[in-house]
Design a protein that fits this description.
heterodimer; A: alpha/beta; eight-stranded mixed beta sheet; 8 strands; B: Rossmann fold
């Protein structure tokens, strides 16, 4: 997975998507790669897992060899217009940029194409060995992955269209781009993951996803039940295991990540998860 | 007088379930209670009698004082257009490609729709208590900033940007050759996309007075509401909960309580008896350590933010019916029921 150029990490809100994205970035960094971690939508997720302050549009080195940034739409838009569409003097032509900002709020696929466009730009820029994107939740993932194609329906020709075709090519190439879906062995995340896998299979915008089931409790091999509070604990653990087993059967779990107990900060969670992922990948 | 409870928190912490449990408890206490919910799990939806999903509050078949409504952001946006625009403009808006796109893309739109809908129910004075499960978009804080953001969107800021000047008449867009902005945009996009967006924004702008006034009403409802922040003791939801405590006093009001879902009983801290089966022992010790960490987290949160802390025990069984939900409320410790008028 870490030999690809782009890893997109998504999943339902609350499943630990940002923690997994941060852990993958830390692991790639430990392997000596030049890494860029990108926060695509929800501000704060990646930043807290790197124990840094808020991220900005300019990549900042958060560990030696590991940079992190957030896609700020207005800045991404300016860059998209000037660098990717090669509009001359865009800085002075503020009105055009502002008009595009309006477009990005109201028109389908424009906001997404700017975000995906920034990631595409960084992947092909050769400054990084790998780009790891903390993507929007699975519910919005489709509009991002489909954006390069949706824009083609909206804009029949021109530079935006050509740029969109190049992005679609990057996403659809399984040697270059990998999608990770993080989920939990619980009802809502499982249902949403199964639905996501279904439409991904139908649409062919990106290669088959790797499903990581997060917060998996350890098995309990003993059949006995101790007395006292230990017995209460064993009861809870067993009933949680039964629920977990039920949803694990429904999920095509490629990888199970352990429930991490006793940690205090998101930074600790990301560090532990990267150790686990090192063993799994 | 209708009391309002806003139940907020990060995604995945059990917010919807807690909102439902509070509502069931209130209804069984004899209060006419409406719970407005977002994206409930299938079992929870059927427990609430929400099998046929609808925007309209439905009375529960088996619980006389309980009503439930589900949020549908698309439908709510259409309602905004119908309420605040001329009939022919409303039709044009609802049929416009960009209307749906804006409803999906504008981060505050689902939150605005939820807040508008909730405020409508509060103002209807048909219930003693309205419990609102807030949508998780934008980390949940969006719900509280949505009215202002929405007024800004329809207020024409974007429209002024496109035209680079004062509000234009509709005729303006048919004379595009005069506008270098539109010419450049068209050459980049290879189409008249920007003009179509501008026309859409022009229609949307006619709703401004209505939306701005409505926004002020919604904000008043929020300021008068009680707020519960739901979290688990996991690190990521905790940082969200801290954010709520820092920002909500300014945006709405100070939360009445922070409710830690999936809490472990304090007595488990002592659970590692030496004579335990060696297979069982590490599992028991793991939970004991987790119990200790949870307790430390709650104590620290309460000390630092002066927060009233409540707990709901960790259970493996998702609630299947109203009795399960009532049981969940029953087992909760420290919820300030008196603030909702429940003794």
């Amino acid at each position: 997975m870490l030999d690809s150029r782009l890893v997109i990490v998504s999943g339902k809100g609350g499943v630990g998507k940002s923690a997994v994205a941060a852990a993958l970035a830390l692991l790639a960094q430990r392997q000596g790669k030049r890494v860029l971690a990108v926060e695509m939508g929800s501000p704060g997720g990646l930043a807290t897992h790197f124990s840094t302050g808020d991220l900005g549009f300019e990549p900042r080195e958060v560990r030696p060899g590991l940079h992190a940034m957030m896609v700020v739409r207005s800045a991404a838009l300016l860059e998209y217009l000037s660098l990717q569409l090669r509009l001359p003097g865009i800085g002075r032509f503020g009105a055009v940029a502002r008009a595009f900002d309006a477009l990005a709020t109201a028109a389908p696929a424009v906001r997404e194409i700017i975000t995906i466009g920034k990631i595409y730009w960084e992947v092909q820029a050769d400054r990084w060995d790998i780009v790891i994107a903390d993507a929007p939740p699975a519910g919005q993932l489709g509009s991002y992955l489909r954006a390069p194609r949706s824009i083609a329906e909206l804009v029949p020709s021109g530079r935006v269209r050509n740029q969109g075709d190049a992005m679609a090519g990057l996403l659809a190439n399984p040697d270059l781009t990998r999608l990770v879906l993080v989920t939990l062995p619980e009802e809502l995340p499982t249902t949403e993951t199964v639905e996501t896998i279904e439409w991904l299979g139908e649409e062919d915008v990106v290669g088959p996803p790797t499903v990581m089931v997060n917060r998996v409790l350890p098995e309990l091999a003993s059949a006995g039940r101790p007395g006292g509070t230990a017995g209460e604990i064993v009861d809870l653990h067993r009933s949680l295991l039964a629920e977990q087993e039920h949803w694990m059967k429904v999920l095509p779990g490629d990888m199970a990540l352990p429930y991490l107990f006793g940690l205090f900060t998101p930074g600790e969670v990301a560090a532990h998860l990267s150790d686990t992922l090192e063993g799994l990948l | 007088m209708t009391a309002t409870l806003l139940v907020t928190g990060a995604g995945g912490v059990g917010k919807t379930t807690v909102a439902a449990a509070v509502a069931v408890r209130a209804a069984r206490h004899g209060m006419r209670t409406l719970v407005v919910t977002v994206d409930p799990a299938r079992r929870l939806a059927s427990a609430l009698g929400l099998a046929d999903l609808g925007n309209e509050p439905q009375p529960h078949a088996d619980e006389p004082d309980l009503w439930a409504a589900m949020l549908d952001s698309g439908a709510s946006w259409r309602a905004v257009a119908e309420r605040h625009a001329d009939p022919d403009v409303a039709v044009r808006l609802a049929e416009n490609d960009f209307f749906q796109a804006a409803a999906e893309h504008f981060p505050a739109s689902q939150s605005y729709a939820a807040a508008d809908q909730a405020a409508t129910y509060v103002q209807a004075r048909a219930w003693d208590l309205v419990v609102v499960d807030t949508p998780p978009s934008g980390g949940g804080i969006d719900f509280f900033t949505a009215p202002a953001q929405m007024a800004d969107l329809v207020g024409g800021r974007l429209l002024r940007w496109i035209t680079g000047g004062p509000f234009p008449g509709r005729r303006f867009f048919y004379d595009r050759a005069a506008r270098p902005v539109l010419r450049v945009a068209d050459s980049v996009l290879g189409s008249d996309l920007l003009q179509r967006v501008a026309e859409f924004l022009l229609d949307l702008r006619t709703t401004y007075d209505g939306v701005a006034q409505r926004g002020r009403e919604i904000e008043r409802v929020m300021r008068e509401a009680s707020i519960f922040v739901i979290t688990t003791a996991d690190p990521a939801p905790m940082s969200e909960a801290i954010r709520f405590y820092r920002e909500l006093p300014r945006l709405a009001s100070t939360p009445e309580a922070v409710i830690f879902n999936r809490s472990l009983p304090d007595r488990w801290v002592q659970a590692g008896e030496p004579e335990l089966d060696p297979v069982v022992k590490p599992v028991v010790e793991m939970w004991a350590a987790e119990t200790l960490r949870q307790r430390d987290f709650r104590d620290e949160f309460s000390a630092r933010y002066g927060a009233r802390v409540a707990t709901i025990p960790w259970s493996s069984d998702p609630p299947n019916d109203l009795d399960d939900l009532a049981g969940l409320a029953e087992r909760a410790v420290g919820i300030p029921w008196e603030r909702l008028g429940i003794s």
